[in-house]
Amino acid sequence: MSLRPVYIRSVASLGAENPDFRQLFSPLEARRMGRLLKRAVWTSRQALDAAGLAMPDAIITGTDFGCTVQSENFLGALKQGGDATPRPTDFMQSTHNTIGSLIAIQLGCHGYNATYSHKGNSFRSALRDAWMQISLGEADTALVGWFDEEFPQVGAVDRAVSVVLSASADNALARLEAASFSLTEEALLGTVLELL
Amino acid sequence: MSAIGCGQAETLAALRERRSGIGPVKYLETTLRDFPVGEVKLSNAQLAARTGAPAHWPRTSLMSILALQEALQQASLLAEVNTAEGEALPGASAKLFAEGRAFPAALTAALTLVSGTTVGGMDLSEQQYPAYSAWHSCGASTDLAAKFLGFSEATTLSTACSSAANAFIYAANLIRCGLAERVVAGGAESLSDYHLNGFNSLMILDREWCRPFDASRAGLNLGEGAAFLVLETEESALQRGAKPLAVLSGWGNACDAFHQTASSENGEGAFLAMSKALKCAGLQPSDIGYVNAHGTGTPNNDASESTALRRIFGDRIPPVSSTKPYTGHTTSASGSIEAVFCLLALQHGFLLPELNWKQADPACVLPYVSDVQCAFQVARQSDRPEAAGNSRGQSPLKGVNGIANVICNAFGFGGNDSAIILSRV
After folding, report:
1. Of A154-163, B117-126, B165-174, B369-378, minimum mean pLDDT range
2. What is the dihedral of CA A34, A40, A43, A48, to 10 degrees?
3. Do A118 and B258 touch (CB under 8 A)?
4. Per-residue confidence at B85, pLDDT binned at 50, 70, 90?
5. How far is it, in rounded angstroms, from Cα A6 to Cα B235?
6. What's this model's pTM, rounded to 2 decimal places?
């Protein structure tokens, strides 16, 4: 099977500091979404804008632990008992694919949507899946993200990185080669962030 | 493995005898004891004894290992490994190796494992809280199984209840792109107090036995289990003289993009997933002989899925059933457990009648509940000239035994909807 080349069109990343979310979310939306979700939507928008793309064909997400704060809220309420009631919003946001789904809901994107949660292989699997979707001609563009939030109890660290991949070489930052998937995940992230 | 049995033989017997595995909570530590569940009828200690793995590992890992051991044995890959390389993994005891529960390192190191889970090691974290288990994450529970059996590479899909179906899609694409020759894919999910309470907080659990597509349906029963398939190219199977069980002929993944926990009224995500799967397989709706529905038993899912089925099939809907009244909703594992049910039905020439359905709902399809009804529906299909064969040149439908292609649906929170098509070889 002949495979198409895959290009990196844009990269967006957030450090520990939060941006001014008011530019993107209404106060009601901001209250409902946890910090990780807001950062994920933010970098996704940044990457799409930088690529000049309104709607990706695929949304593929990596997260080592998902929304740990919401998991902790739900588990805490469950275990402490008494007046603490486990809240459905916390449960909903503790499923790992809540991030990729939220991005799709915000964009109205019905395309391919997948989430990888495998520490040491979350981002690499997401990027490789996107590479395959484009290589095989099933998608022309893909929005790939890696999102986590600091939660020492499980060793989670802050991450918010978004990458737009494309079958088109126009305005590409670099070509994404299959060989890069033999890199460790941190090294792979390094090569992506160098493009910033 | 699921509430109806451990391994293919028990599973097949239960399906043929129409035996449900749903009942009161027995193994799970939970305060929600008045909800029926579909538990695997083995304690962690019993799972450990059967697999040779430590009993203090996450239940998701233990169930994965048991299912993987059976899948690897059935795929007869052992002949592939020459005796010089045929040594057991370091650490695997000679006893396990002799019993076929450990595998030669050269066998499993050449395989990629793609699993789907969402609960991961939450069963341990909820017992240790406020401390978290070292194996809390989804990937950690996959890694334990991968390392125990010697897989060189592993990854984990986590798209809630469509995780295992998406594992098949990722695995198929790895093979198509030439990045892997053989991939073992599926999913595993243990019950946890966490997600039993989570589904309860969403008010979608039924206190009675679930009734998908029934007018009185009031929610789902949670279940647990694990199932894996060994996937390879036709060329690879022919080369080693292996007899394939079926063809993974199509798959589709789409996002409903409607709501985090509810499905759209027009079933757009489900419709797109099935449409993509048909296109991928090069099949027409009339080529499909059976649909294993996601059919959870919630008012919302079943109505939305029915709308999608009507959009795909019009007034010629093939037999449709949900097998969740047998197993409960096995969440992340449902896509692979139900794919195995479809394979068993294809192989042994029977269909999977829905249990516990009584009353039609105008908003829902009529599920297949008996062989009599099925024979009628299949005969009606065979009357149509376009059903006489399909684009892959497969034989025309001949009663229940003649069903050539089945769709297996798995839909998840966030509208992560997937469908796969399994075809007779």
Report:
1. B369-378
2. -130
3. no
4. very low
5. 27
6. 0.94
B56 is catalytic: no
User: Among A50, A4, A3, which Cα is nearest to A168's?
Assistant: A4
Residue type, A184: T
Question: Quick one: CA torsion of B27, B411, B17, B50, rounded to 10 degrees?
Answer: -40
Estimate the crossing angle of helix A122-135 against helix B163-176, to 10 degrees: 60
User: In the structure encoding, which two tokens stand for residue B123, read together?
Assistant: 């069963």
- Confidence (pLDDT) at B120: 96
For the record, the structure tokens of B380 come out as 């009606």
Cβ B139 vs Cβ B119: under 8 Å: no
Kindly report, residue by residue over B152-205, the tens digit of the pLDDT.
899 999 999 999 999 999 999 999 999 999 999 999 999 999 999 999 999 999
Q: Using the Cα atoms of residue B60, residue B65, residue B66 and residue B71 in order, give the sign of their dihedral.
A: positive
ipTM of the complex: 0.97
Contact B331, B160 (CB under 8 A): yes
Q: Cβ–Cβ contacts within 10 Å for residue B29, how many?
A: 11
Q: List the 39-78 stretch of A: residues with Cβ below 8 A of B.
A: 59, 63-66, 74-76, 78
Q: In terms of DSSP H, where are the helices of chain A?
A: 27-32, 35-51, 68-80, 88-94, 98-107, 122-135, 185-193
Give burial (CB, 10 Å; 0-12/13-18/19+) of A53.
middle
> Residues 117 to 176 of A: which have CB under 8 A from any B CB?
117-122, 125, 128-129, 132-133, 135-136, 153-154
E strand or H helix at B412, and its extent? strand B405-412
Give per-residue pLDDT as tens, B1-55: 999 999 999 999 999 999 999 999 999 999 999 999 999 999 999 999 999 999 9
